[in-house]
Design brief:
Layout: H1 2-18, H2 26-52
Transmembrane segments: 24-43
Protein name: F0F1-ATPase subunit
Keywords: Membrane, Transmembrane, Transmembrane helix
Length: 53
């Protein structure tokens, strides 16, 4: 979960450095996207565990 969030934040900070903009914060947007993907992944895995019981 942490690796996904860090990866998205790292990509966002790289985009912030290489494509500067006054209104867009790539690192914040991509970090939040990483949080959503990580939570979705955890929920999906828990549902898979509950199906096998």
């Amino acid at each position: 979960m942490g690796a996904i969030i860090y990866l998205f934040y790292f990509i966002g900070s790289w985009l912030d450095e290489n494509h500067p903009s006054d209104t867009v914060y790539y690192s914040k947007i991509l970090a939040m996207l990483g949080v959503c993907i990580a939570i979705y992944n955890v929920i999906r895995q828990v549902n898979e565990l509950n199906k096998t019981e």
